[in-house]
Design a protein that fits this description.
Layout: H1 9-30, H2 35-52, E1 67-70, H3 76-86, H4 126-139, E2 146-149
Parallel strand pairs: 1-2
Helix pairs in contact: 1-2, 1-3, 2-3
Keywords: Thiamine pyrophosphate, Transferase
EC number: 2.2.1.-
Family: Belongs to the transketolase family.
């Protein structure tokens, strides 16, 4: 189980490097992908997954886990790279990115990918989904946190 820690800056930088590397390797599989977004957001994902969040690598549906909602589904390659680094997804799946029957489609689908909490789609809905998840967890008296990533472009769309 991963639990929040006081990870060192050097440790988090290494995690971010590995996330970037995984994203580049996935982009190489298809010769495309939102690589720029993955390179940009790797530091945020490293801090979230290796410095803040509680989760179990062998049980992505663990009730007491913290949730990470990726509102901007076109950043899915970055989240997959973090899930691979965190051990939630097996390393062998990296080479299936974007392929037919892959659990790593180019745009995030929660029903396909362990560890992905919401499907990407219409931009601007992640914040309201996160609020709903928070209210549901509060009602269950849960100590879990919900983290949400959305892009600046989403501020003019959806319910935001």
């Amino acid at each position: 189980m991963n639990s929040p820690s006081n990870a060192s800056t050097a440790s988090l930088a290494e995690h971010a490097y590995r996330i970037r590397r995984n994203a580049l390797l996935m982009g190489e599989v298809q010769g495309q992908g939102y690589i720029g977004q993955a390179l940009d957001i790797a530091d945020v994902l490293a801090v979230a997954y290796f410095g803040a969040m509680r989760y179990r690598t062998d049980d992505p549906e663990w009730e007491d886990r913290d949730r990470f909602l990726l509102s901007n589904g076109h950043y899915a390659i970055a989240l997959y790279a973090a899930l691979l680094k965190a051990g939630i997804l097996p390393a062998e799946e990296l080479e299936t990115y974007g392929s037919d029957d892959s659990r790593l489609p180019m745009s995030g689908m929660a029903s396909y990918t362990p560890g992905m909490e919401m499907s990407g789609g219409s931009l601007g809905h992640g914040l309201t989904i996160a609020v709903g998840r928070c209210l549901g967890l509060k009602r269950k008296h849960s100590a879990s946190f919900v983290y949400t990533l959305f892009s600046d472009g989403e501020l003019d769309e959806g319910a935001i």
